[in-house]
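Q: Sequence in, structure out?
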Amino acid sequence: MQKLIDTLKSFGIEIPEDKQADIKKALSENYKNAKEVAKTLTKVEGERDDWKERAETAEETLKGFDGIDPANVKSELETWKQKAADAEKEFNAKIYDRDFSDALKAALDDVKFSSEAAKKSVMADIKEAGLKLKDGKILGLNDLIEQMKQSDASAFVDESQQQAQQNQARFAAPRIGQQQTPGSMTRKDIEAIKDPSERQAAIAQNIQLFQ
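A: Exactly. Output:
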């Protein structure tokens, strides 16, 4: 999706940074590039042909019983009927699982995890939760993710905390040609800082001035 945003930028259409996450999410739900489409079609066609062949084999076998007294082959006939039904059921289940995985991957595209292992664990838990896929959307997914953030916060990145740490680090870093030492600022200096994030970071570093 970043590639598409960069392509738009090359044509003079620039997406503001604070809107890029929303654009990426919308595009991931409704847009796939040609390579992704071709790959998906190839996979689906292969699965379709495989299961179609199995179903046709079962169907041809059933036709072989035409004209034969069912009483003599009832058991075998029922076995092949069950094989045909199982083949169709298994095929539908595989297609559903594939669609569910694709929808889950797209939905988690903008969720930040603490590690790749944490992401895989969360995805496995979501699949085991029994949520249903409808019209390309996983019902109840957002609520489940929020519950997971409460019960296992270490698996996710706290964006507000991360931003605060970045602001504090930026404020604490010496500026070019200057050196800062702890306690070198006065309360008046801190209150004069216009940027709210930097001001809060300065207060945290010099909390004794506000007690």
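The chain has three domains: 2-111, 112-157, 159-210.
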